[in-house]
Specification:
Elements: H1 3-10, H2 16-47, H3 52-79, H4 89-93, H5 95-105, H6 113-141, H7 143-146, H8 150-183, H9 187-212, H10 226-231, H11 237-267, H12 273-279, H13 284-297, H14 300-320, H15 325-361, H16 366-395, H17 406-431, H18 435-438, H19 441-455
């Protein structure tokens, strides 16, 4: 293949089937991961009978371990060279282990004391950690290798986020009703059967994605040593900004997901209303579909800031409407639209930081940069997003399956409503510095193509 053909292939317009298949990756991931991020804390405290402080600590420790594993996953991807590409084969290889480990995390064997805590910690590390981190790393790492075309990257990422939200919707809306249906009063059995069904669906989606996707952007055929991967971070300021802001954002996201059940059960008096809160996450599809149009009118950084602003307004409105459930739902829906918009952008922007790293250092470390920028941030943020609120609840005197004191109820409201607002403001303050680097992207892509031409002369 000559340079002209190679360049055309690297800048290819992606087939619709491939974009849909890309959406299946995050759809599968969220069928299982959102089950954990939304319900594992509740499962530990109200089903597996683990104290809230211990449950929060388990999740924090596990997520820190998993965040560190993301760094190694990035290096593993950069070392991978198969006839299927760098990232794509992992959709096949990790599908069944992902489903099985998540099933074990939601299994509550009849054990006690330290053994129970060890079982919870080990299974959580495997499911939400090591294996999901591998899935999440490759979902993000494959995007810069599908095409160099920035519009196609934004489009593919929008499909991905729609799939992500559909997976979240199914999990969030139907988990508790299915647990009740299959368990018939025994939530332990109900969770096992429900997660098993989600696992089968996730395996099918990941294998379908593996079958239909292709990696087109040329990468070095030599394994990229870890030290070389690190070189891609030197001076990569836009990557630093995304990593810090995205990890911080996921504290709010994990907090919102996990505390909807507590807010519904203890403050609104009906735990199954959590399915309404979480099910409304599907409205984020509207935000995902609108991203290419908003980016055209503004840019990627402004789109993320708009999302953070809308999300903060929706959260704050919930505090102002009192116990009126209809108004609470309207406010929550506005918050969902904003958070979905803000959450989508870093995934697309990470592909640009891979280009920046290659432009700055000469090293294209797709696996490492996207692993830290996505899986590492999600795991670290999710860990603190469960740990911080759990400590607030513990200090407020929360006791599972009991009527809560006014102090504990206020703590639940603060964690569910105001903590995300505070975090959104912090993230927005970080992201305003990204404008400068987004303006450089056209020059960076031109320079990279010129370098490719010189290498091939």
């Amino acid at each position: 293949m000559d340079l002209k053909e190679e360049t055309a292939k690297a800048n290819a317009k992606l087939p619709t089937l491939e974009k849909i298949s890309y959406s299946f990756t995050d759809m599968a991931g969220n069928l299982l991961y959102v089950s954990m991020s939304s319900y594992i804390l509740y499962f530990y405290t109200d089903v597996f009978d683990i104290p809230v402080s211990a449950a929060g600590m388990i999740i924090l420790i596990a997520c820190i371990v998993d965040a560190v594993s993301a760094i190694f996953w990035g290096s593993i991807v950069d070392h991978t060279h198969t006839k299927w590409g760098q990232s794509r084969p992992y959709f096949l290889w990790l599908a069944i282990p992902f489903a099985l480990s998540t099933f074990l995390a939601f299994t509550a064997p009849n054990i006690h004391g330290v053994a129970k805590l060890l079982y919870a910690g080990i299974t959580y590390v495997l499911a939400a950690g090591v294996i999901y981190t591998g899935i999440q790393t490759t979902i993000s790492a494959i995007l810069p290798n599908l095409t160099l075309n920035p519009s196609e990257r934004i489009g593919a990422n929008s499909y991905r986020m729609v799939g992500s939200l559909i997976g979240s919707f199914v999990t969030s809306t139907f988990t508790l009703p299915l647990v009740a249906f299959f368990g018939r009063g025994n939530d332990k059995h109900g969770f096992m059967i429900t997660i098993a069904l989600f696992g089968v669906a996730a395996v099918f989606l990941l294998i379908t994605a593996f079958k239909n996707m292709r990696e087109r952007v040329p990468v070095s055929q030599k394994s990229l040593p870890f030290k070389q991967s690190l070189k891609a971070t030197v001076g990569n300021v836009p990557w630093y900004l995304l990593v810090i802001s995205f990890a911080t954002f996921w504290i709010a996201q994990a907090d919102r997901n996990s505390f909807s059940t507590y807010y519904a059960k203890y403050n609104l008096g009906n735990a199954e209303l959590a399915a309404v809160f979480n099910g409304l996450q599907v409205l984020g599809i509207i935000s995902s579909i609108s991203i290419p149009f908003i980016v055209k009118v503004t840019n990627k950084t402004a789109t993320m800031l708009i999302g953070l602003g809308i999300g903060a307004v929706g959260q704050a409105m919930m505090a102002m409407v009192g116990g009126n459930f209809v108004l609470v739902i309207i406010s929550w829906s506005i918050g969902v639209l904003g958070s979905a918009l803000a959450m989508s952008m870093p995934f697309a922007m990470l592909a640009d930081t891979v280009d920046f790293g290659e432009w700055k250092s000469g090293v294209r470390a797709s696996g490492f940069l996207t692993a830290v920028g996505s899986a590492f941030c999600i795991q670290l943020g999710s860990g603190f997003g469960s740990f911080i609120p759990s400590k607030i609840l513990d200090m407020a005197g929360f006791v599972a399956n009991q009527n809560q004191t006014a102090h504990a109820s206020s703590a639940i409201s603060f964690c569910f409503i105001w903590l995300p607002v505070i975090i959104y403001a912090i993230v927005a303050g970080i992201m305003v510095f990204y404008f400068k680097y987004e303006k450089m992207e056209p020059k960076i892509k031109d320079d990279l193509l010129k370098r490719a031409e010189q290498r091939n002369k």
